[in-house]
């Protein structure tokens, strides 16, 4: 009877290990990490803007080649691959944040575009260093004349064992808040 209990315990142990392995395989999908973005700024602003296309021009300094459009550069082994282009994720997040704070996002407003110059996560060591830099440009739709251009650079150090996806989204929000705190931007969209 003692042998049957040991076999039963070993069976359940193997079954548990198999279930854990199968569930973890589902986390690493080839299509990339899905990040849902919910706007959360407590700022308020007014104005009209049309959010246009963003581009991702970050370069991998080790290879001097452009980063793949769906990968955020990091120092750890592996890569942070999204289920869509970084530029589309950021563009949609900016759109949502602006609308959330009270800016009217309309097709007739000034055209806001962005160039994500750097999105870097240095996660070697005991903390995570974040660099998120976007050059925002606002142009008149009819003439294409730039009326506003500014680089917003977010650099932070966070706990390694916190919520990295939450911090990633927080960095995008902080960049939009810096944009909203810029009186030249507010003046241009009003």
Secondary structure blueprint with pairings:
Layout: H1 2-25, E1 48-56, E2 59-60, E3 65-66, E4 71-74, E5 80-81, H2 86-101, E6 104-105, E7 110-122, E8 127-139, E9 146-159, H3 164-180, H4 183-189
Parallel strand pairs: 1-6, 1-7, 4-7
Antiparallel strand pairs: 2-3, 4-5, 7-8, 8-9
Helix pairs in contact: 2-3
Describe this structure in words.
The protein has 190 residues and is an alpha/beta fold. It folds into two domains: 1-30; 34-189, ABC-type transport auxiliary lipoprotein component (Rossmann fold). The chain is 34% helix and 32% strand. It contains four helices and nine strands; from the N terminus they run H-E-E-E-E-E-H-E-E-E-E-H-H. The chain has helices spanning 2-25, 86-101, 164-180, 183-189; strands spanning 48-56, 59-60, 65-66, 71-74, 80-81, 104-105, 110-122, 127-139, 146-159. The strands form two sheets. Strands 1, 4, 5, 6, 7, 8 and 9 form a seven-stranded mixed beta sheet that branches. A two-stranded antiparallel sheet has the order 2-3. It is globular and about 45 Å long. Mean pLDDT is 86; it is low at 10-28.
């Amino acid at each position: 009877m003692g042998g049957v209990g040991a076999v039963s315990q070993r069976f359940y142990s193997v079954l548990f290990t198999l279930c854990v392995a199968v569930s973890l395989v589902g986390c690493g999908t080839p299509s990339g990490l899905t990040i849902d973005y919910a706007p959360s700024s407590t700022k308020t602003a007014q104005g009209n803007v049309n959010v246009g296309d963003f581009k991702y021009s970050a370069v991998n300094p080790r290879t001097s080649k452009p980063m793949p459009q769906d990968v955020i550069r990091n120092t750890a082994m592996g890569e942070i691959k999204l289920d869509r282009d970084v530029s589309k994720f950021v563009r949609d997040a900016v759109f949502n944040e602006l609308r959330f704070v009270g800016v009217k996002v309309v097709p007739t407003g000034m055209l806001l575009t962005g160039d994500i110059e750097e999105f870097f996560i240095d996660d070697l060591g005991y903390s995570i260093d974040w660099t998120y830099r976007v050059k925002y440009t606002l142009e008149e739709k009819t003439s294409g004349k730039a009326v506003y251009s500014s680089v917003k650079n977010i650099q932070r150090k966070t706990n390694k064992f916190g919520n990295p996806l939450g911090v990633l989204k927080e960095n995008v929000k902080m960049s939009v808040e810096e944009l909203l705190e810029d009186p030249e931007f507010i003046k241009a969209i009003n």
